[in-house]
Amino acid sequence: MQSRNGLPGGSGGGPESSVEWDPWYDALASGWGELDGTGAPAFVAPSVDRGDGVRSGGAVDIYREVQRSAAFQEVRGRYRRFVVPGVAVFFTWYVSYVVTATTAPELMARPVAGAVNVAMLAGLGQFLTTFLFTWAYVRHARLRRDRAALDLRWDTQELTRGVRGAER
Predict the structure, then answer these.
(1) Region of residue 51 (left: phi > 0; alpha: psi -120 to 50; beta: else)
(2) Which PANTHER family is this protein grouped with (predicted)?
(3) Which residues, including other chains, have CB under 8 Å from residue 149's CB and lie 6 or more apart?
(4) For the chain, what are the domain ranges?
(5) 12: which DSSP letter?
(6) Distance of alpha carbon 5 from alpha carbon 7, whole angstroms
(7) Which of the residues 98, 101, 148, 160 has the least number of beta carbons within 10 Å of its own beta carbon?
(8) Do residues 44 and 33 touch, judged by C-beta distance below 8 A?
(9) At what angle do helices 58-68 and 146-167 cross, to 10 degrees?
């Protein structure tokens, strides 16, 4: 089986080799605690200084290339298009609650039902909106970003493993 970048895949325990895709599959990152077959940790060659202050070392170049790729930019754009408006709305709602509580205490003290007043309802609304935004964020990540990010992760891992194997 081959990945999208044309490298062989399917034996690494990634999503290509499983019958059912698991977005929460957690494998060790390449070079982190993996053994090289002799029982010792795998060797990772250090990057080389090219003399112009820029370090060149296979994996670094791969990560920079991935960061500049259209797929990575799309994932980041989807993240920003959700998070920036969400933070703006939540921050506005929080600041309006604090400002209203300090500038209009008579409004916040107005009883709604028994001992429950407007301030208590607004405070509970803060908790409720926190949970709603968390749910919406997780749902958005699952539906719009997780699959693309996991594809990028696996492709990057395959490329870095290829570079590290060639450096030995």
Answers:
(1) left
(2) INTEGRAL MEMBRANE PROTEIN-RELATED, MEMBRANE PROTEIN
(3) 75
(4) 48-167
(5) S
(6) 6
(7) 98
(8) no
(9) 160
Please report, in tens digits, the pLDDT of each residue of the chain (168 residues total).
444 544 444 444 444 444 444 444 444 454 455 555 565 555 544 444 555 555 456 778 888 888 888 888 888 999 999 999 999 999 999 999 999 999 999 999 999 998 899 999 999 999 999 999 999 999 999 998 888 888 888 888 888 876 666 655
* H helical segments located in 21-145: 58-68, 70-103, 105-108, 118-140
- Compute φ and ψ for 165, nearest 5 degrees: -70, -35
CA torsion sign, 122 to 125 to 130 to 133? Answer: negative
